[in-house]
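<context>
A single protein, sequence plus fold
<entry> Chain with its tokenised backbone below
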Amino acid sequence: YLLGQVEERYMLNLNDVMAQYVGREGDLSQAERDLEELRDKIKKIGEVNLTAIQEYEELSTRYEFLTKQQQDLLNAMDSLRKVIDRINRICHRRFRDTFEAVNERFKKVFPVLFGGGEAQLILVENPEQPSGEPGVEIMARPPGKKLQSVTLLSGGEKALTAVSLIFSIFLFKPSPF
């Protein structure tokens, strides 16, 4: 029975191996402690996972796929940032060009409507706005008054200043209507 068990479990023929160990000296109690320690280690290792290789290959394939996806996303984010920067530069340049053109027309239209005076548009940087977009301040000096912000003008002067600004914009870019 023991010969059959050893051969089945360890794939060894006990008669062939016996010659190596006959007459060997050693401490039987130490050998039993070592045996018990090895059995504990085997128990801690647990059962052999026969599908571990297949699971590893599946996880490895999934990892490679996700890594490629991550790289694609990073590349897309980088290209989007470049496009956004380019669009921001173009918009900023076009805004400045349009602002200057409208300001020049505003300087000409305002005195015509008021019968004198002067006006101008000023870009105002707003540190409270995180996007860094400037605001526009309208400075006007109707005839006989000092140069001041449009908010300090009377109601009629504000309206006429607004109309001159609208005419300036339409002179720059006429409406399709």
